[in-house]
Amino acid sequence: MSRNPTTPGARRPIPEARSLRKARTVVAALTAGATALVLGSAAVPGGSAVAAAGPGHSTGRADVRPAVAGPRLARVLTAPITTAECLTKYAIHCYSPLQYRTAYNLAPLYARGITGRGRTIVIVDSYGSPTIQHDLQVFDQQWGLPDTQVDVVKAGNVPPFDPTDSDMTGWAGETTLDVEYAHAIAPGAKIVLVETPVSETEGTTGLPEMMKAEQNLINHGVGDVISQSFGATENTFPGFAQGRTSSLTNLRYAFKDAYAHHVTVLAASGDNGATDAQSNGSDLYPYKVNSWPSSDPLVTSVGGTELNLDQQGNRLAPDSVWNDGYGAGGGGVSAVFARPWYQDGVRKVVGAKRGTPDISMSAAVDGAAWTYQSYDPAHVGWGPVGGTSEATPIFSGIVALADQKAGHRLGLINPALYALAHLPSRLSGETDVTTGDNSFAGVTGYTAGRGYDLASGLGTIDGTAFVKALALTG
């Protein structure tokens, strides 16, 4: 992580053009031998890396789960309330998209016409939401955002929506959060919502349908960035306990296709800190685990931070790792994937394995995002939501802004993220997160500190500087 030049011991600032040339040189030098390592799958042949990760138990199915967190209010509100009122009423901070825009310093970009115009964000969710277009319009009207038409693609035989089905309403809530906040950050970008059916296929639940849908859109030229706010614990994939990883690695074809077509793929790092859910979807592993697709080297893993903002969106304190009792930002090392080449510079932290997250954005429930939903007739209105499901669509909007700034797709951005860490923060736009940890549910996790760590990755961003730097180096 680049250090602020005013910090004792930090290197002296260097001229902007020279610094950005240096980052581009780092990327070019690393790229020369990249493909084979990035496209590689299992960490060690024969599954020895799996065995080293602990006595994983699998029931033969890996359930895909939305990475969304937060208390469900007994009664949703007819209108959002201020941060101060939210603290008084619910003992948590609640933030609007306008506060996030200020916190991430996006106004200078919007003033220059950088809104994501001409770029497409693909959002993938099971079932979707039958009211997403209406709900987005209400959301936009509340915050003075421009309306947009959501292009809904049904990938397969999506069953009729049942508001009494908790699985469907859970995914509808995820869909609402994803669409509303991707649009809020990149209001000029086109939103394509892919709704998939959930069924038992090849020992996994939902993932094959999602990967097929993504591959189909990529091959048809649809999408510059794909936002995935879901995950399944690596340990739950069939064969994991026996040292076999093919049930997971055989699903990577969509990401390989995205890599070949220069499409950026994002995934939420999870909401359970250094652990995650077992196959039953409710119990957590009593030791450190990681989840896929966040752990995939061809994916940018988005972790979670906690913001402390005033009503205008100004920071009252530096961001910390999300860990507020409701959940904690996912992070750790993969039991399946070896360290990708772009993480060689942080090998002292990740060891021989792929480390997550790569970057972090707002995810705390104590700092939750206001969303509007009407898919459930019994709960129509406004409610606060958090989780790395929030962080991921927010960052998808940032990537769309950078794509527009660059004038082309940026593709796999991870090499650029780690190369930019060599620059001063004022140029890279990457801001170190140095406080907090992701210990959760009795599992000791990782502590944030100076530089890259397994709690916050490379840290968070200043949007204006980051978009400029990413567009130049990506």
From TrEMBL:
PROSITE patterns: SEDOLISIN, SUBTILASE_SER. It comes from the Bacteria. Residues 94-473 form the Peptidase S53 domain. The keyword NADP does not apply. The keyword Hydrolase applies. Transmembrane segments: none annotated. Keywords: Hydrolase, Protease, Serine protease. Coiled coil: none annotated. Pfam families: Peptidase_S8. This is S8 family serine peptidase. It comes from Streptacidiphilus alkalitolerans.
